[in-house]
Amino acid sequence: MTRVVALRNLMRSKPVAVAAIAICSVSWGAMGSPLAQSSTRSTESSARQRCSALRGIVIPRAAIGLPTNGGVVVSASFVMAADAGNSNGEFCKVLGSIRPVDPTAPDIKFEVNLPANWNSRLLQLGGGGFDGTLVTGLGGVSNQSPSAPTPLALGYVTLGSDSGHEGAGGFDAAFALNDEALANFGHLQIKKTHDAAMYLVKAHYGSLPQHSYFAGASQGGHEGFVAAQKYPADFDGVIAQYPAYNVVLMHLGSQVFAKALYGGNGAGWINPSKVKTLVAVVHAACDGLDGVKDGIISNVPACNNVFTIQTVRTTLGCEGGADTGDGCLSDAQLRTVEAINSPFSLGFPTAGGLTTYPKWPILEGATFLNNTLGESAIPSRPPAATDAFQLKPADATIRYIITRNPTLDPLTFDPNQWAARIVQVSSILDANSVDLTQFMGKGGKLILMVGSIDDSITSHNTLNYYNRLVARFGQAALDSLVRFYYIPGFGHGNGVFNAKFDSLGALDGWVSRGQSPGALIGIDGNATNKGRTRPLCLYPAWPKYNGSGDVGASSSFTCVAP
Fold it and tell me: How many CA atoms lie within 13 A of 129 on its CB side?
């Protein structure tokens, strides 16, 4: 009894005494003792109170490093580890809004999750498409293994936003008719959300994070580029997967793609059966170039040498040039393949100085199973789910962002008549810069990833950016800043090798412990190849089969230079 009284007196004194109590409780083995239960209830009560104290907090304008009318916490809810559906441990879920300068613009809605067992790190997560949906931060990093613990469960403060508007998902761009909403989506919301979260972190924990990271894929990868290029002081590390960094050129390239597909009153359209025929011929020629036929074309440079547009003409061209069935391609369809396999030149530079958008990997194994070429030769207006994927972002950007004419037919759009507006929009939306000097100077790290068969944002777009970085910094200096993984068979978060990997662990080890990541291990997320692994090689290396061993095991492959 005397022992318990003494311990209770310690609990009323300095915080260090609480640690002593915990040690003492373990030494007693009193897992279910009244003292242990009381301590747990006290800790839980304190966490609840600190969470509740955030409700209604006003975030002053001065706390946000860009023009706003401040922010407010709408709700702060304490989530217990045992709550139904929660796999993130104990945390405080904070929902709030950042007020715009323009009263007609929408708020930036955000969520910040504050774990009870904080690891002194913060992770901001990016969105997808044209955003418009709240990024909760409750799940994993893009392409994380489903069985791995979430960042929040690992102790990261996690956060995200809706980027400053609510949308119907996908490529709903109606918000862009408002200038501030467009600018928020373009890049301003990244810092505004980050700064609001930092204010709440300081209020909740009494200190700021030791390390702050950003992670995202596609539009989220673009947002990761924004973090490194425009706000380097705010982030120590970035994960950018298949980034949509040059939005304007990318979507104008998508218009050229769609015009080729739907040109000649649909004569150039390639139906799903013909797509399968083309994909099968490419794989027959290229799958074994990496040492094993396993459904993955890993030696892409060799494939480019043996399978060209001329190969398509000689092996798949319909006799006489007319469409005679699903086993061949008409002359018009061959022209479509050639257009998809060719870079698009805008004819004048965007705000970042770029003039071209590269080819899609249609002759390198891209399947177009998810980002399809559509189900009909004639597109809908506005585009429907059955239309070619590339028509949708082109349509949204042309109608709502560039021309701001929702009634315009995007296939009739001529970029040359809108050059000044295209440059202006590019300055708002794009993150093309390779000047990462400030990010590098503070020791920032970038993990960059793309799949070889990405048929949404061509892999060559990321390859081009990386090669520009090499030209800017030189390979030796760049290696201290960037790790670039080019993953064969991986698409836009899918693919014949649906790679799952621990990018956050690699980034944190690099930033916090100086452990430069080399080849990683990717696990195939496809049900048909469950458990299959491959090395994720640092570009330009690719995984070559050793000639023996389990073709489903990464140990049977070696990363080799081209």
Answer: 20
